[in-house]
C-alpha cells in the first residue's frame, strides 16, 4: 500500500506519572482494537509511507477510551478515561501528540490510585460519589466528543459534564470553560465557522430538563435560555443553520418511575412522535417551534440549512433504536455490545424538512445502507452543502471499517474499505489550501492495523478515494478505539489564538 517508508522515526516520550490498576481480563472492549493505552507520546519525526501533501495545514484530533483503573463492576467502553490524539500537518510535515484529558475525575482517581465511580452498566450506588451523571455517580471522562473553538480544543462528555480545553498544537491543558452552566454541557456543541460562535445544549433530570446557549468567538457566553421538555430526556446531538438551532425530544428516554430508585433504564416508545424544536440562534423558550416526525432516535446529524420557508436537516434515522437486550438474548458482555453495534441499531441516512409557515414535516430516506458518524467540510456547516462522508461499521462491534462519500445533489456515492483487520476513526475533512470547491481537500483519519499491530494517520485525496491513501504516517504506538474526531484549519486556529490573546 503506497511507497516505501521514509523518515527516521525519532520519537520522544513524555512519561507522565500515570497510576494504573488495570488487571488482565477477557472483556472484548478492553482488548484488541480497544486495548487501553497509557503512554503519552510526543513525536515530531515519524515514518511516512507516501508523501504528506504540502497544501494541507491544520490539526486532526481524535479521542479514545482508555480505562486507567480496574472498573467498579461491569465495564462499558464509554467509561474509559478520555485521551486525545492530535496530529498537526503543515508544510509536508507532521507532529503528533497524545495526552489524557486531566478531568476532575481523572485527577481524583489518580490521587486515590483506584476507581471511584461506577460505570454506565452499573447502579450508581457502587460509586463513592453520589448523584447522577457527570456531576455525581458517573465519572465525567470527557471522552465523547471533541471540537476546536476559539483557538482551543473543547472536549466534552455525553452526560453533561464540563468543557475541558487544551491547546490544539501542544495538547497543553488549559483552564476549563468557565461559561458552562451549573448543569454542564452535553457532547456535540457546534461551531459556526462563519461567525466563530459555539452553539451548545444540556439536559438533566429536573425541570426545565434542557438549556440552550451561544458562546462567542471570544470564548464569552452570549446567550443562555431554558428549553422546557415534558420530562427527563436523552438528547445526544443538535444541528444549526445560519439563523436557527435545531434541538430534539425523541421517544427514547429513561423509565420515569425507576429514576427515584436510581435505575436509569432507557425505553423506546414507538407510539410517540419524535419532536424537533427550532429556535432562533438567540431565541427564547417562547420562540421555540416544535415539529413532529416519525418515531426514532438519532445519535448524530450531518448538517442543516435554510431553503425558503423550510429548514432542511440530514442525519441518521435509527430503524431499531432499542435492540432486544434481555439477559436470555444477550448474556454478559454481549448485552452491553448491542447498543454499540450500528448494524443492530440500523441507522440510515435520512432527511427531514420543516416548514416554518405551515408547521408540516416531510421525511425522505436517502440511503438504505447502515451508516453513521458522518462528517462534512465544516466550512459548509449550517448552509447548503453537497458532500458527506459516513462511517461503515463492523457487524457486532463498534469499529469502523471504511467510509462512504455521498454526492447529496446527484445521489451518487463512493465507498472505500480500510482493508483486512484495519479499523479507522471518524474522519476529518481538511480543505486544500486555496480550495474553491467543497470537496477539494483531504480525508484524514487514524487507522489501527491489527495485523501489523500499529496505528497510522492516513490521508486520502477526497476526490480520488479509489486511488488509496496519499500518505500513511506511522504513530509511535497502536492507539485504542474511540468515538469522535475533528479537523480545524491551522490558519483559523492561529487567528483565534492571536485574537483571544490580545
Structural class: mainly beta
Count up the helices.
4
Strand percent estimate: 35-45%
- Record field, number of beta strands: 35
Distance between the termini: 46 Å
Rg result: 21 Å
Main sheet: strands, sense, barrel:
7 strands, antiparallel
User: Uncertain regions: pLDDT < 50 for 5+ in a row?
Assistant: 1-15
Mean pLDDT: 91
The outline comes out as: globular
What is the helix content? under 10%
Structure explained in plain terms:
The protein is mainly beta and 502 residues long. The chain is 6% helix and 37% strand. The chain contains 4 helices and 35 strands. It has helices spanning 104-112, 332-337, 342-345, 490-501, and strands at 5-6, 11-14, 40-43, 48-50, 58-65, 82-90, 93-100, 145-149, 152-156, 164-166, 173-174, 190-192, 197-203, 210-215, 221-226, 239-240, 244-249, 252-254, 266-268, 274-280, 289-293, 301-307, 310-318, 347-355, 361-365, 372-375, 387-393, 400-407, 413-417, 422-424, 428-431, 441-449, 454-461, 471-474, 485-489. The strands form 8 sheets. Strands 1, 4, 30, 31, 32, 33 and 34 form a 7-stranded antiparallel beta sheet that branches. It has a 6-stranded antiparallel beta sheet with strand order 2-3-7-6-5-35. The model is unreliable at 1-15 (pLDDT under 50).
Amino acid at each position: 500500500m503506497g511507497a516505501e517508508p521514509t523518515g527516521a522515526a525519532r520519537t520522544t516520550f513524555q512519561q507522565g506519572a500515570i497510576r494504573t490498576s488495570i488487571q488482565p481480563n477477557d472483556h472484548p472492549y478492553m482488548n484488541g482494537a480497544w486495548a487501553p493505552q497509557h503512554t503519552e507520546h510526543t513525536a515530531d519525526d515519524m515514518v511516512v509511507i507516501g508523501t504528506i501533501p504540502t497544501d494541507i495545514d491544520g490539526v486532526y484530533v481524535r479521542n479514545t477510551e482508555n480505562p486507567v483503573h480496574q472498573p467498579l463492576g461491569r465495564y462499558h467502553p464509554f467509561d474509559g478515561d478520555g485521551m486525545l490524539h492530535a496530529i498537526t500537518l503543515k508544510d509536508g510535515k507532521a507532529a503528533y501528540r497524545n495526552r489524557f484529558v486531566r478531568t476532575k475525575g481523572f485527577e481524583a482517581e489518580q490521587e486515590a490510585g483506584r476507581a471511584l465511580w461506577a460505570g454506565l452498566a452499573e447502579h450508581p450506588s457502587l460509586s463513592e460519589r453520589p448523584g447522577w451523571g457527570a456531576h455525581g455517580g458517573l465519572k465525567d471522562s470527557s471522552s465523547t466528543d471533541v471540537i476546536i473553538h476559539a483557538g482551543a480544543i473543547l472536549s466534552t462528555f455525553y452526560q453533561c459534564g464540563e468543557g475541558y480545553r487544551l491547546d490544539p498544537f501542544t495538547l497543553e491543558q488549559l483552564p476549563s470553560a468557565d461559561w458552562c452552566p451549573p448543569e454542564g454541557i452535553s457532547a456535540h456543541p457546534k461551531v459556526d465557522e462563519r461567525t466563530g460562535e459555539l452553539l451548545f445544549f444540556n439536559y438533566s433530570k429536573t425541570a426545565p430538563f434542557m438549556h440552550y446557549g451561544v458562546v462567542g468567538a471570544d470564548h464569552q457566553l452570549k446567550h443562555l435560555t431554558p428549553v422546557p421538555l415534558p420530562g427527563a430526556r436523552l438528547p445526544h446531538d443538535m444541528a444549526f443553520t445560519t439563523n436557527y438551532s435545531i434541538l430534539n425530544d425523541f421517544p427514547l428516554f429513561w423509565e420515569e418511575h425507576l429514576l427515584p430508585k436510581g435505575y436509569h433504564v432507557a425505553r423506546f416508545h414507538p407510539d410517540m412522535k419524535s419532536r424537533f424544536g427550532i429556535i432562533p440562534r438567540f431565541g427564547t423558550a417562547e420562540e421555540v417551534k416544535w415539529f413532529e416526525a416519525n418515531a426514532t432516535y438519532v445519535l448524530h446529524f450531518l448538517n442543516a440549512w435554510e431553503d425558503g420557508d423550510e429548514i432542511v436537516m440530514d442525519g441518521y434515522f435509527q430503524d431499531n433504536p432499542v435492540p432486544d437486550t434481555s439477559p436470555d438474548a444477550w448474556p454478559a458482555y454481549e448485552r452491553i455490545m448491542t447498543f454499540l453495534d450500528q448494524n443492530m441499531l440500523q441507522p440510515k441516512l435520512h432527511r427531514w424538512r420543516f416548514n416554518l409557515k405551515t408547521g408540516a414535516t416531510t421525511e425522505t430516506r436517502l440511503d438504505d445502507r447502515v451508516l453513521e458518524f458522518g462528517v462534512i467540510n465544516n466550512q459548509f456547516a449550517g448552509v447548503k452543502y453537497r458532500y458527506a462522508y459516513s462511517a461503515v461499521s463492523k457487524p457486532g462491534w463498534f469499529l469502523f471499517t471504511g467510509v462512504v462519500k455521498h454526492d447529496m445533489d446527484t445521489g451518487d456515492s463512493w465507498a472505500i474499505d480500510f482493508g483486512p483487520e484495519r479499523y479507522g476513526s471518524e474522519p476529518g475533512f481538511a480543505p486544500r489550501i486555496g480550495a474553491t470547491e467543497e470537496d477539494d481537500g483531504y480525508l484524514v483519519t487514524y487507522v489501527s492495523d491489527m495485523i501489523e499491530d500499529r496505528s497510522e494517520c492516513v490521508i486520502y485525496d477526497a476526490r480520488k478515494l479509489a486511488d488509496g491513501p496519499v500518505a500513511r504516517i506511522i504513530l509511535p504506538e497502536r492507539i485504542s478505539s474511540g468515538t469522535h474526531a475533528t479537523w480545524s484549519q491551522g490558519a483559523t486556529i492561529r487567528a483565534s489564538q492571536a485574537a483571544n490573546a490580545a
